[in-house]
Specification:
Largest sheet: 7 strands, mixed
Number of strands: 10
Helix content: 40-55%
Number of domains: 2
Structural class: alpha/beta
Order of helices and strands: HHHHHEHEHEHEEHEEHEEE
Strand content: 15-25%
CATH class of the largest domain: Alpha Beta
């Protein structure tokens, strides 16, 4: 018998199981997106019934790992939205340069392409030596991938074009060595990165930052969870620090908006109050 997809009440059972058994809180994830991803997993792994899927998820912690990998979103690229990085270079890095130590938080960093992009622009601004880049994600496997500094070689041509469009003036290939079908980025970039698991839904602030980036993560959360996460970022950001979100995300309707001023043209806000 072919499985025809989750009913809404079945999705709620899965969400409750994840919280009760493992402490993973998907309660406030946008339901349409979550349902689509769980249904995709059910098809991929050929479960004949919801009951069998639910039993496997509750009783097999190794399968939980696969569930988290498939359901959390790991789509990223280097210098994604080049105009955004150009704005960082022009308007944000000169301000960060005035600090004795620069602390940057990449929240929901996925496989780390964005963190390495940031390390490159800090290096080119002469600021990497006094920077710490904290890269966090819910998924420990994507963090391992990010920590390795090894990426597929195939997209490097696109990344190089993004880099040039973002204001890069060097040979992008000077930042990595190519071997077979992989690109290994320089240890000098990786040396300033700290990788750790962090759950935006349930974990607290762990430092004070001058720049927080959380791009294309909030779109998967409902309004209540977005508000909770923005409050966490507000508590983690120094006065006059910067908060950067994805192109479809905003703080316009949140409670923290009165304390922030948006930089012209990009989804970057400065904490002014």
């Amino acid at each position: 018998m072919e499985f025809n997809g989750l009913r809404d009440e079945e999705l709620e059972l899965v969400v409750n199981d994840l919280l009760d058994v493992y402490g993973y809180d998907f309660t406030n994830y946008a339901r349409a997106s979550l349902k689509r991803r769980v249904n995709r997993l059910l098809v991929l792994d050929r479960f004949p019934s919801f009951a069998e899927f639910r039993y496997r998820l509750k009783s097999d912690s190794a399968y939980l790992k696969r569930f988290v990998e498939e359901v959390t979103v790991n789509v990223t690229e280097m210098f994604r939205d080049p105009a955004f990085y150009r704005k960082l270079r022009q308007d944000v890095l000169p301000v960060l340069a005035t600090y004795p130590l620069i602390r940057v938080w990449h929240a929901g960093c996925s496989t780390g392409e964005e963190v390495y992009s940031m390390a490159i622009i800090l290096h080119e601004a002469g600021l990497l030596h006094k920077s710490l880049l904290y890269a966090t994600d819910l998924n420990p496997d994507v963090l391992e991938s990010a920590r390795s500094g090894i990426f597929p070689l195939a997209p490097m041509k696109q990344y190089s074009e993004n880099y040039i469009s973002s204001g890069g003036t060097r040979e992008f290939s000077s930042y990595y060595t190519a071997r077979y079908d992989r690109a290994r980025f320089k240890d000098s970039l990786k040396g300033k990165m700290i990788f750790a698991t962090h759950n935006l839904v349930s974990d607290n602030s762990f430092n004070e930052f001058q720049l927080i980036l959380c791009r294309n993560v909030l779109i998967y959360f409902d309004k209540d969870l977005q508000e909770k996460v923005l409050k966490l970022f507000d508590a983690s950001l120094e006065s006059l620090g910067f908060l950067a979100l994805g192109s479809k995300e905003t703080i316009r309707f949140s409670r923290i908006v009165s304390r922030y001023k948006q930089l012209e043209g990009e989804k970057i806000w400065r904490k002014v109050n």
